[in-house]
Each structure stands twice: as structure tokens, then as C-alpha cells.
Specification:
single chain; mainly alpha; ABC transporter involved in vitamin B12 uptake, BtuC; 72% helix
Length: 371
């Protein structure tokens, strides 16, 4: 039987009028937004690898890459352009995109897990813990004499473990009777970050001049030291976090209703919490190891995506990865061109853009601290 008066099939749930069109509209908007972000990322990569003291056109970039893989390029370029692209800009841009994507999904996971737009890895102490472990490795790790395969990944692993320990401590302090108080979470994050900062300061006190120069610029955030070797050390962890994050979409959507409701829907809440924290810490720790402490990306990016696409994590998580990559590439381009031939730390650029946005978020919060 067909027509307007048709009855639903036996056992099929009744669908309220208007739900399907609204859902279809949201899904269509999400597909369009994701496609636009993919295009924006590709455009950002083309611009980032071409702009600088040695300009390289998109056609020259393509010709250099074609020649690199054994095919014949179609545009003339000089050896200096090829050297700059292959040795400097390409690893820097790839690392920047991965770092931005890792920070974006880490922020989205933390905000979904705690159901609050202020729960960002930097604010709950993850970045500070990762930085402490990474600085400890830089200052004290020379005595370890690690084998070459492990040494490549050692800094990223140290940063991940430091961030994981910090996250576990903050989460334990904020949990009361199975519930996480957001105000306590943020205050505990501030306190633990302060302790981690004190530990970093003590390590800097005993560091030599070369280590001080490395850590000082690295602690403000920079992609200037990106090489193929450093990319190989952090890319697997960043890619793992970015790829794993979308698998948490359905559990995080259920958690939006509350932990009890999510449990009744079949979500293993505590297991999801632990796994999501590990993935968020993996992305943050690897990002800190790759580029230093870069604040506000994990805070701003998921919230911007949420304003456009809504709270559905099926689109929020991949869109956060893409937008994080785009914004970090834009920040890095500004950092290395605004005061050329000098270079600004990228953490300063993201803080100048993100701090006002964070203040705006605080002003939008209710007086009791709940969103």
C-alpha cells in the first residue's frame, strides 16, 4: 500500500514528521562542509609550499614532484627551488597539517568526553605534561644512548607518556562519585600544569646553552625544525590519533544525553572514557613532540565546527581534523612571513588568535560554570 495514508511496516518505529528532512539536510550540509574543508586543506598546502623567500609556483611544485618519482615535469624550475621544496617546505607543511589535525581531534574528543567546550588538552594540563616529559628527554635523554630505530620515536613517546600521566591525574582529581565536575577539572588542570611548568623550569636551570636554545624556541611552538626524520618520528602517532578518533563518534553522541542514558544505550562508558583519553593524549603528545606547545587550536577548532555543523561527532571529528590542519598551516605561514626574514613562534600566532575566542567562550558560560 502506498500514498500519504500508508501505515509503517510492522515493528518499524514511528518517525515524526519532519525528522527525516531535517536529518537529510544536516547530512547534506556535513558532506558539503567536509568537501569544502578538503579543498581548503589542499589549497593551503599548495600555498604553504610555494610562499617564502624562494617562491615556487604550483606548476613548478608539481613538476618537481613528478621528476622526483621518475616522470617528466612540464615546467622549468631551478635546483634551488627543488632543494627548498623537498628538504625544507614539504616536510614542514606535512608536519604542520598532521599537528593541526592531531590537535583538532584531541580537542574534539576532550570536549565531547566532558560535554563542555572549555575542556581542551592545554587547559586540562595535557600539553604541560607532554612538554615536561619532552624537555626532560631533551635535557637528560642524551645519556640513554638509545638504538637508532627507537631513538627516532623516543621524543614522541616521552611526550605521549607525560601527557597521559597528567591527564590521568587531572581526571582522577576531577571525578567525584562517577561524575566529572568541569570547574574542578579546569582548576585541577591549571594546578597540574603549574607543577609541570615548575618541573620544566628546573630542567631548564640545569640545561646547557645548546639545550636552552632548543627548548626555549620549541616551548613557544615552531615547525622550523621539521625534517623528514622528525616527521617519521611523530607522523605514525599523529595519524593513529586522527584515524582512531572517528570511531568514537557514536559513543560520544550517546554521552551527549548523559552517562546513565549512554550506558542504557549499550555504551561501555568507562571503557570509552579511557580509550578516548588515550587517543586525545596520543594526538597532543605527538603534536607537542613535533612542534612544541601550540595553544588554543584544540579549543577553537572543534567549537567553530560545532557552530556550523552541530554536535554530531560523526561530522565533528573529521571536520575538526581538517580545519585544525588548515588553521595551523595558515598560522605557520603567518609566523614565517609576517616578520621575514625572522620567524615568529607559531604558538604566539595561535595565542593571539585563540585567546580572544577563549574569553568570548568564558563570557558565554552561565554563572555557575555550566555550559
Amino acid at each position: 500500500m502506498s500514498g500519504a495514508g500508508a501505515l509503517p511496516a510492522p515493528g518499524a518505529p514511528a518517525v515524526p514528521s519532519g525528522v527525516r528532512p531535517v536529518r537529510a539536510t544536516r547530512e547534506r550540509r556535513a558532506r558539503v562542509a567536509l568537501a569544502a574543508l578538503v579543498a581548503a586543506l589542499l589549497g593551503s598546502v599548495v600555498v604553504a609550499v610555494g610562499v617564502g623567500a624562494v617562491p615556487i609556483t604550483p606548476a613548478q611544485v608539481l613538476s618537481i614532484l613528478l621528476d622526483r618519482v621518475g616522470l617528466e615535469g612540464f615546467v622549468v624550475y631551478d635546483t634551488r627551488q627543488a632543494a627548498v621544496l623537498l628538504a625544507v617546505r614539504l616536510p614542514r607543511v606535512l608536519q604542520g597539517a598532521l599537528v593541526g589535525g592531531g590537535l583538532g581531534v584531541a580537542g574534539a574528543l576532550m570536549q565531547g568526553l566532558f560535554r563542555n567546550p572549555l575542556a581542551e588538552p592545554g587547559l586540562v594540563g595535557v600539553s604541560a605534561g607532554s612538554a615536561l616529559a619532552a624537555v626532560a628527554f631533551i635535557v637528560l635523554g642524551g645519556a640513554l644512548a638509545l638504538p637508532a630505530p627507537l631513538d627516532v620515536h623516543a621524543l614522541a613517546i616521552a611526550a605521549f607518556l607525560g601527557g597521559l600521566a597528567t591527564t590521568a591525574l587531572v581526571y582522577r582529581l576531577a571525578a567525584r562519585a562517577g561524575q566529572t565536575a568541569v570547574a574542578t577539572l579546569l582548576l585541577a588542570g591549571v594546578a597540574v600544569a603549574a607543577l609541570a611548568g615548575a618541573g620544566t623550569g628546573l630542567l631548564l636551570f640545569v640545561a646547557n646553552d645548546a639545550q636552552l636554545r632548543t627548548v626555549t624556541f620549541w616551548s613557544l611552538g615552531s615547525l622550523g625544525g621539521a625534517t623528514w626524520a622528525s616527521l617519521a618520528g611523530t607522523a605514525p602517532m599523529l595519524l593513529a590519533a586522527i584515524v582512531a578518533a572517528p570511531f568514537f563518534a557514536r559513543p560520544l553522541n550517546a554521552l551527549l544525553l548523559g552517562e546513565a542514558e549512554a550506558f542504557h544505550l549499550g555504551v561501555r562508558v568507562e571503557r570509552v572514557k579511557r580509550a578516548a583519553v588515550v587517543v586525545a593524549t596520543l594526538g597532543t603528545g605527538a603534536a607537542v613532540a613535533a612542534a612544541g606547545v601550540i595553544g588554543f587550536v584544540g579549543l577553537v577548532v572543534p567549537h567553530l565546527v560545532r557552530l556550523v555543523l552541530g554536535p554530531d561527532h560523526r561530522s565533528l571529528l573529521p571536520a575538526s581534523a581538517l580545519l585544525g590542519a588548515v588553521l595551523l598551516l595558515a598560522a605557520d605561514l603567518a609566523a614565517r612571513t609576517l616578520v621575514a626574514p625572522a620567524e615568529l613562534p607559531i604558538g604566539i600566532v595561535t595565542a593571539l588568535a585563540g585567546a580572544p575566542f577563549f574569553l568570548w567562550l568564558l563570557l558565554r558560560q552561565a554563572p555557575d560554570g555550566r555550559s
